[in-house]
Amino acid sequence: MSNIENLNQTITEFYDKMSSWEQSVVKETGYSLAQTHTIEVLGTFGALRMKELAQKLGITTGTLTVQVDKLVNLGLMERTPHPEDGRAIVVQLTASGLDIHHQHHQLHLDLMGDLTRHIDSEEAKVLLSCLQKMNQEF
After folding, report:
1. Do residues 59 and 48 lie in contact, with contact meaning Cβ atoms separated by under 8 Å?
2. What is the pLDDT, as a whole number, of residue 88?
Protein backbone atom coordinates (compact mmCIF):
# COMPACT_ATOMS: atom_id res chain seq x y z
CA MET A 1 0.00 0.00 0.00
CA SER A 2 1.38 3.43 -0.93
CA ASN A 3 1.87 6.20 1.62
CA ILE A 4 -1.10 8.18 0.24
CA GLU A 5 -3.34 5.10 0.40
CA ASN A 6 -2.18 4.35 3.93
CA LEU A 7 -2.74 7.96 4.96
CA ASN A 8 -6.20 7.91 3.38
CA GLN A 9 -7.13 4.71 5.19
CA THR A 10 -5.81 6.00 8.52
CA ILE A 11 -7.54 9.38 8.28
CA THR A 12 -10.79 7.71 7.23
CA GLU A 13 -10.57 5.30 10.17
CA PHE A 14 -9.85 8.19 12.56
CA TYR A 15 -12.77 10.21 11.14
CA ASP A 16 -15.14 7.25 11.55
CA LYS A 17 -14.03 6.68 15.14
CA MET A 18 -14.24 10.38 15.99
CA SER A 19 -17.71 10.63 14.42
CA SER A 20 -18.89 7.59 16.36
CA TRP A 21 -17.54 9.07 19.61
CA GLU A 22 -19.19 12.42 18.86
CA GLN A 23 -22.53 10.75 18.09
CA SER A 24 -22.47 8.80 21.34
CA VAL A 25 -21.52 11.85 23.42
CA VAL A 26 -24.15 14.06 21.80
CA LYS A 27 -26.85 11.39 22.06
CA GLU A 28 -26.56 11.54 25.83
CA THR A 29 -27.27 15.29 25.88
CA GLY A 30 -30.64 15.16 24.12
CA TYR A 31 -29.49 17.70 21.51
CA SER A 32 -28.85 16.90 17.88
CA LEU A 33 -25.36 16.79 16.42
CA ALA A 34 -26.17 19.85 14.29
CA GLN A 35 -27.35 21.76 17.37
CA THR A 36 -24.21 20.79 19.26
CA HIS A 37 -21.98 21.89 16.37
CA THR A 38 -23.78 25.24 16.23
CA ILE A 39 -23.27 25.69 19.97
CA GLU A 40 -19.63 24.64 19.59
CA VAL A 41 -18.90 27.25 16.90
CA LEU A 42 -20.60 30.09 18.77
CA GLY A 43 -18.89 29.06 22.00
CA THR A 44 -15.54 29.21 20.24
CA PHE A 45 -15.98 32.38 18.18
CA GLY A 46 -18.58 34.34 20.15
CA ALA A 47 -21.45 36.29 18.60
CA LEU A 48 -21.61 36.01 14.81
CA ARG A 49 -23.78 37.19 11.95
CA MET A 50 -25.99 34.44 10.60
CA LYS A 51 -24.03 34.39 7.33
CA GLU A 52 -20.70 34.03 9.17
CA LEU A 53 -22.04 31.22 11.32
CA ALA A 54 -23.45 29.40 8.28
CA GLN A 55 -20.06 29.64 6.56
CA LYS A 56 -18.22 28.26 9.60
CA LEU A 57 -20.68 25.35 9.77
CA GLY A 58 -20.58 24.76 6.01
CA ILE A 59 -24.36 25.03 5.63
CA THR A 60 -26.80 27.43 3.99
CA THR A 61 -28.38 30.30 5.92
CA GLY A 62 -31.76 28.65 5.29
CA THR A 63 -30.66 25.47 7.04
CA LEU A 64 -29.07 27.52 9.79
CA THR A 65 -32.30 29.48 10.36
CA VAL A 66 -34.12 26.25 11.24
CA GLN A 67 -31.29 25.29 13.62
CA VAL A 68 -31.22 28.72 15.27
CA ASP A 69 -35.02 28.74 15.70
CA LYS A 70 -34.77 25.47 17.65
CA LEU A 71 -31.90 26.72 19.81
CA VAL A 72 -33.64 30.02 20.53
CA ASN A 73 -36.80 28.12 21.55
CA LEU A 74 -34.66 25.97 23.87
CA GLY A 75 -33.24 29.12 25.48
CA LEU A 76 -29.69 28.31 24.38
CA MET A 77 -29.23 31.10 21.86
CA GLU A 78 -30.55 34.57 21.18
CA ARG A 79 -30.86 36.76 18.10
CA THR A 80 -30.14 40.48 18.15
CA PRO A 81 -29.98 43.09 15.40
CA HIS A 82 -26.46 43.91 14.25
CA PRO A 83 -25.47 47.23 15.86
CA GLU A 84 -24.17 48.73 12.60
CA ASP A 85 -26.10 46.88 9.89
CA GLY A 86 -29.85 46.89 10.44
CA ARG A 87 -30.33 44.14 7.85
CA ALA A 88 -28.06 41.67 9.63
CA ILE A 89 -28.89 39.47 12.60
CA VAL A 90 -26.30 38.46 15.18
CA VAL A 91 -26.67 35.22 17.13
CA GLN A 92 -25.01 34.39 20.40
CA LEU A 93 -25.25 31.85 23.15
CA THR A 94 -27.20 32.49 26.31
CA ALA A 95 -25.74 31.54 29.69
CA SER A 96 -27.36 28.10 29.32
CA GLY A 97 -25.87 27.72 25.85
CA LEU A 98 -22.45 28.69 27.18
CA ASP A 99 -22.77 26.04 29.92
CA ILE A 100 -23.47 23.38 27.30
CA HIS A 101 -20.53 24.61 25.22
CA HIS A 102 -18.17 24.42 28.20
CA GLN A 103 -19.31 20.89 29.07
CA HIS A 104 -18.94 19.66 25.48
CA HIS A 105 -15.62 21.42 25.03
CA GLN A 106 -14.27 19.74 28.16
CA LEU A 107 -15.26 16.34 26.74
CA HIS A 108 -13.22 17.17 23.62
CA LEU A 109 -10.23 18.25 25.72
CA ASP A 110 -10.43 15.05 27.77
CA LEU A 111 -10.57 12.96 24.59
CA MET A 112 -7.58 14.80 23.09
CA GLY A 113 -5.65 14.18 26.29
CA ASP A 114 -6.44 10.47 26.06
CA LEU A 115 -5.62 10.26 22.34
CA THR A 116 -2.32 12.11 22.63
CA ARG A 117 -0.99 10.66 25.88
CA HIS A 118 1.64 8.65 23.97
CA ILE A 119 2.66 11.55 21.71
CA ASP A 120 5.57 13.70 22.84
CA SER A 121 5.57 17.48 22.47
CA GLU A 122 7.57 17.47 19.22
CA GLU A 123 5.25 14.92 17.63
CA ALA A 124 2.28 16.99 18.79
CA LYS A 125 3.71 20.09 17.09
CA VAL A 126 4.20 18.19 13.83
CA LEU A 127 0.71 16.68 14.02
CA LEU A 128 -0.82 20.10 14.68
CA SER A 129 1.11 21.66 11.80
CA CYS A 130 0.03 18.91 9.40
CA LEU A 131 -3.62 19.11 10.42
CA GLN A 132 -3.62 22.91 10.10
CA LYS A 133 -2.18 22.65 6.59
CA MET A 134 -4.75 20.04 5.64
CA ASN A 135 -7.61 22.15 7.06
CA GLN A 136 -6.52 25.08 4.91
CA GLU A 137 -7.24 22.99 1.81
CA PHE A 138 -10.95 23.01 2.56
Report:
1. no
2. 86
**Separation of CA 51 from chain center:** 16
Closest CA to 34 of 1, 6, 81, 66: 66
Alpha helices in 58-117 (DSSP H): 61-73, 95-115
**67-125 per-position pLDDT tens digit:** 999 999 999 999 998 888 878 889 999 999 999 999 999 999 999 999 999 999 999 99
| The CATH number of the domain covering residues in 3-136 | 1.10.10.10
For the chain, the domains span 3-136
> Which regions of 6-129 does DSSP assign to beta strands (E)?
48-49, 77-81, 89-93
> What is the residue type of 83?
P
Other residues' Cβ atoms within 10 Å of the Cβ of residue 91: 22
